[in-house]
Design goal:
Structural class: alpha+beta
Helix content: 10-25%
Oligomer: single chain
Strand content: 35-45%
Number of strands: 14
């Protein structure tokens, strides 16, 4: 009896600790800017903060470009941003129940002297849908160059749990406005086993080396990572697949067995 009371007290204490423990919170979308002279990192949660605007959440990163540009300009970057942000469908499954997505986008401007290349990386951890089975990670870039010299480029990739898709590279043709070469196309990577709680990442390397700094020297870019889980057959489809017979014949066989047993 004493042993049972002791066990009950211990279980009750554990339950109380579980109820009063602080709730685990997702870190939101984290963006990191890296250039030769420095680095800057900030997250959508909590918001607002110095580099993040109010309204940011686990599914949206609203960047305070004024604050970011001020930091870049005073830390050796010749590139600033007239637009910058990221979004996701965290924790996955909306609107497609078999997909999770993370996207980043921006308009980079070579506005002054300083480093003429910058890397924009976004990451988010804790996705749970899809949460098992096999899948395919697709990295879809979109871009345009304006007054970016020949040799200017955008390199992009996406990753699942730090395993990356092949890098997509587009080079400016040197024209005032161009979509680069080769044309935008998705790159894919198979995921053998999806583990719930995974992370998605996007990386875009904007390089405007050789271009003349001005308000019109611009690289528009976006990179989107989409993890699509393999479709799971419905029970009826699974029965037909396993038996090789039409479903009515399967049902008829089951009815005959029940009648015989009766």
């Amino acid at each position: 009896m004493t042993r049972n009371r002791g066990l009950g007290f211990a279980l009750g204490l554990c339950a109380l600790i579980g109820l009063t423990a602080p709730e685990a919170r997702a870190a939101g979308i984290t963006m990191t800017l890296t250039w030769a002279s420095g680095t800057l990192s900030f997250s959508s949660v909590p918001s607002p903060s110095l580099f993040v605007l109010a309204g940011s959440s686990n599914t949206q990163l609203l960047v305070n470009t004024d604050a970011v540009n001020g930091f870049l300009s005073t830390h050796g970057s010749g590139i600033t941003f007239s637009a910058l942000g990221a979004s996701s469908n965290f924790p996955g499954g909306v609107p497609n129940p078999t997909q999770s997505t993370l996207s980043e986008n921006g308009q980079a401007v070579l506005s002054g002297a300083g480093d003429s290349a910058i890397t924009v990386t976004t990451t988010e951890s804790g996705f749970t849908t899809p949460g098992s089975g096999t899948g395919t990670l697709t990295s879809l870039p979109s871009l345009s160059f304006n007054n970016v010299a020949t040799g200017g480029s955008l390199m992009s990739s996406s990753s699942y749990n730090a395993t990356s898709t092949p890098t997509y590279t587009s080079m400016s043709t040197g024209l005032p406005l161009n979509g680069g070469t080769p044309p935008s196309a998705p790159t894919t990577m198979g995921v053998g086993t999806i583990t719930s709680g995974y992370s998605l990442d996007n990386t875009a390397v904007v390089d405007m080396t050789g271009s003349t700094p001005s308000s019109g020297t611009i690289t528009n870019f976006s990179v989107s990572a989409t993890l699509t889980g393999a479709a799971v057959p419905e029970p009826a489809s699974l029965i037909m697949m396993l038996t090789g017979m039409p479903l009515p014949l399967v049902v008829l066989g089951l009815l005959r067995r029940r009648r015989a047993a009766a």
